[in-house]
# Entry
Amino acid sequence: MILVIIRVLSAGCRPSEYGRQAEKISRMRKIEELIDKQDPAIKWLRKRAREAEVSCELLPPSAERETVLLDTQVTTHSTLGALAYDTGGIFIDDGWLRLLGSGHSRLTRTLSSWNATRAQGYYLVGDDAAGGFFALNGGALWPELRSVYYWAPDNLEWECLDLGFTDFVSTFLTSRIITFYEGLRWSTWRDDVRNLSGDRCFAFYPFLWTREGSPENSHRATVPVSEAFDMKVDIVKQLSNGT
# Structure
């Protein structure tokens, strides 16, 4: 459902077009159409997890997995569908990076619930312990449609990674994740993150996007991920309005 809504928003529909878009929504695929029994992507995902160059933990799926898959409207042949249906989420590099799935006690946010009030032309798929967010572009993040974008904790603008979702997952299971996060990690980050809930992240003051902020020297405190995301959205709105 959420991905369908993204398509409607990104299409920029006029009121006269709402009827046709509503008809498309009414043709949402049923759960039987979304579960691929011949070639499910979870096989590939488990193989990549076993071969990963950094730690990778696939959390078991929750009882909500059918609901989450129905909301995403992608098949389990896709990597995103495998996350939604066959996992509760993924912890990568000792939990530094969290990819969302159907939910788990250590990562209660699901793909559908997390995007329910936040999907505005993009679809949030994961985040990291430093307060960075990853999203699939549904049209709001110019210009690469369906590419993964990153909203770094030291940047107020989304950055295109020039990766589709499957390539993104594959890349961040290699040592390239170390290079990607160079400058965003502090000396004790691994110990600090190891027991961190997947629903919390670190907040920094001064903010990392200011001249005075730095991962090593700014004051660090853990906050709910929802608080970190919503606060950053508000800050960007205030700055864009000149307030």
